[in-house]
Write a structure and sequence with these properties.
Layout lengths: L1 H10 L2 H16 L3 H12 L14 H16 L2 H13 L1
Helix pairs in contact: 2-3
Length: about 90
């Protein structure tokens, strides 16, 4: 698994990333809503999502909140990449 991730890490050069962004921008300008969404999220960042905490503050609710937060964070490619490096370092 580590070899596969290392291969992906080496494959992503700044030139290739720029080419993909340029392609996404071209498609977005032509009306591709999904391309526009992806391009905007990469260039401007994803919209902030507020988390509302409710309940009695029990340990079960805290654990659930932590798990949900971890799931949301791990859905972000940059976070997954950093976490994978941290795990490999240990």
């Amino acid at each position: 698994m580590h070899e596969l991730q290392a291969t992906f890490d080496k494959a992503g050069t700044p030139t290739k990333v720029a080419a993909v962004l340029k392609s996404l921008y071209g498609r977005a300008i032509k009306g591709d809503v999904i391309a526009a969404k992806i391009w905007l999220e990469r260039v401007c960042g994803k919209p902030r999502q507020d988390v509302v905490v409710q309940g009695d503050g029990s340990i079960t609710e805290l654990v659930t909140l932590i798990r949900e937060t971890q799931q949301r964070l791990m859905a972000i490619p940059e976070v997954r990449k950093v976490m994978a490096k941290e795990v490999r370092a240990k």
